[in-house]
Amino acid sequence: MKTVTVESVVNTFKLEILAGGNRLDREITRSKAHRPGLEFVGYFEYFPMNRVQVLGRKEITYLLQLSVEERRLHIGNIVKYHPPCFVVTTGQQEIPFLEMFCDQEGIPLLRTPDKTTEFITKLDGYLLKALAPEMSIHGVCVNVSGIGVLLRGRSGIGKSETAHTLIGRGHRFVADDIVVLKKLGPSTLLGTHNTTTREFLALRSIGLINVVRQYGRTAFQDETRIVLDIELTPWEDKALNNELEVEPQFTEYLGVKIPHIELQLQPGRDTSGLIEAAANNWYLKQLGYSAVEEFMGRLEEELR
């Protein structure tokens, strides 16, 4: 199981440490933050204790309305479940007993000036990616007109060169050689680099180039949602069909099915142009348009 340390969250969001600073090594295993509400009135039946606990104005105001003994009791009841950490939002100052209990139990108590909903949105997004199941594959990842494309094929087939041509046509490079795939949901697959190879593209006979240095910041992006899996293969005579509509094929990564297309290479064939056509065609299909249906409709009109 993947985990994220509290220290990583502190560094990412520049949080102020109020208590429990010696236990920033505590691990977070769940991606969504939790705002304790029913727990402050003693109901812990479904308390998600493995999540980051966020205390906004609503929670702190409620605690301040309690008597000293009630406040001590309710805060103590939550702290004893040892969640990874507590985060107080909107820079609130009056947090009685929280610092004392967190120091006693070794639980980091943190503070941010951000508003509650704003902070939770950013934190959830960060944890979702950091804790997502992932795998690495050999290939190239590009973003073609806003559409994430995974290029695969045997070593030396021309994946990197094709990506270089796409960059020259105004599209964006994401990763070369090692593509990291992250599953963000049942049907959402994110493609990114492995940090070490960030911005680098290896071209045979040329060597390693830095895409951002050569082509500018707009030629690169850190990640993209993968919606097409394109495999580059050697040309085989009579292997390709010429039907009006190709039977859909899929490749599965981490349980997510991605539409698969095979592109055979041949000298003079515009591989990058075909990839652009495939990406644009996928987009039109998402809008409900089918070129085949329109074509067949025209034929029917002519036959009437």
List the helices and strands and how they pair.
Blueprint: E1 4-5, H1 6-13, E2 16-19, E3 27-28, E4 53-55, H2 57-65, H3 68-79, E5 86-88, H4 98-105, E6 109-111, H5 116-130, E7 134-144, E8 147-152, H6 159-168, E9 172-185, E10 188-192, E11 200-203, E12 207-210, H7 211-215, E13 223-234, E14 249-253, E15 256-265, H8 271-286, H9 291-303
Parallel strand pairs: 4-5, 5-6, 8-13, 13-15
Antiparallel strand pairs: 1-3, 2-6, 7-8, 7-9, 9-10, 10-13, 11-12, 14-15
Helix pairs in contact: 6-8
Describe the structure.
- Strand 9 and strand 10 form a beta hairpin.
- This protein has helices at 6-13, 57-65, 68-79, 98-105, 116-130, 159-168, 211-215, 271-286, 291-303; strands spanning 4-5, 16-19, 27-28, 53-55, 86-88, 109-111, 134-144, 147-152, 172-185, 188-192, 200-203, 207-210, 223-234, 249-253, 256-265.
- The longest helix is centred in the C-terminal third of the chain and has 16 residues, at 271-286.
- It folds into 2 domains: 4-130, HprK N-terminal domain-like (Udp-n-acetylmuramoylalanyl-d-glutamate--2,6- Diaminopimelate Ligase, Chain: A, domain 1); 134-294, 3-Layer(aba) Sandwich (Rossmann fold).
- Helices cover 32% and strands 29% of the residues.
- By secondary structure, the chain is of the alpha/beta class.
Brief write-up:
By secondary structure, this protein is an alpha/beta fold. The protein is built from nine helices and 15 strands.
Detail the poorly predicted runs. Answer: none
User: How far is the N terminus from the C terminus?
Assistant: 63 Å
Rounded to the nearest angstrom, the radius of gyration is 26 Å
Sheet with the most strands, sense and barrel status: 5 strands, mixed, barrel
According to CATH, the fold-level topology of the largest domain is Rossmann fold
Q: What general outline do the C-alpha atoms trace?
A: elongated
CATH class designation of the largest domain: Alpha Beta
**Overall tally of domains:** 2
The number of strands is: 15
What percent of residues adopt helix (DSSP H or I)?
A: 25-40%
**Count the helices. How many?**
9
Along the chain, the helix and strand elements come as EHEEEHHEHEHEEHEEEEHEEEHH
Strand order of the largest sheet: 7-8-13-10-9
- CATH homolog superfamily of the largest domain: P-loop containing nucleotide triphosphate hydrolases
Mean pLDDT across the residues is 92
